[in-house]
Amino acid sequence: RVLKRELPKISFDDDVIEYLANALEGDFAEDDVVEAWSPFLISHSAASDDESVQEVCRAVLRGLRSDKDGASTSDAAVVEARVGSSGAPGGREAEAKDLAEAQSVGDRIRQRKASADKASSEAVKGLAVWLETLRLTQYAAQAREWCDKMGAADVEEIMENWEDFSDELQLKPLERKRVQKDSASRLATPSASSTAPPPGGSESGRTKQNGSEATAAAVAAAEAAGRQTFGTTENPYIILEEIGSGATATVYRCVRASHPGEEFAVKIISLTKLRLQSDPSRMLEKL
Fold first, then answer.
1. pLDDT tens, position by position, 115-124
2. What is the maximum span of the chain, computed from C-alpha positions, in angstroms?
3. Among 17, 47, 83, 157, which is 20 to 30 Å from 143 by CA?
4. How many domains would you assign to the chain?
């Protein structure tokens, strides 16, 4: 409600609102909120620079505090209206409605998102991350339909039938090639469950070897899909889609090659744009 009141011409989707709400949990500092909200306010044209971001954040925070104070003041009036002059409590419907309205927007969004993520992950394990790594997210619905029809429970089963999968989704030549290359790379990697440790060897050594091979396969798939990587060569980060941008930097979502299910964010600074600032050294310190 506060965002709509302070920024009536700006529309935020549920994921962005959830992220903004998370920045307000616990004992937060105003500077931390400004830093967390900055990429999204600028990318949605709600602010144009760091100074205007601070103004918008302060206005929203003032509105939130005002709403909170107003809600506390009106508690007595709400109770009086519910009880009535005779002292008898109102119906259960009215009480349930009040409780539902008191639930925060952030909580409702998090519950919906958690339910959707759980349903998606239970359907086909690893499908969403795999499609995103290969830049095939536009085929997500068709991929789930194919998995339902074929009874595929995880990505490995898709790879074993990659040709039929590619034909069914009518992938373009380069997209098909990425699927083929990734499938060949991963299926050629022996799994720890199917390969016993060699005589005199250790289980931990075999697990480490398999982990390295799986990481190499993930990096090969990312490079085949045109994804950029950074970090150590043994276990780099894979850069995914853009989630926000400012005057001199852009924020991207990224994953670790060894743990593609764990998500991070990386800020990439354009040195060319940075040098155009009136005081690039000061701007670099702020970033």
1. 554 454 456 7
2. 85
3. 17
4. 1
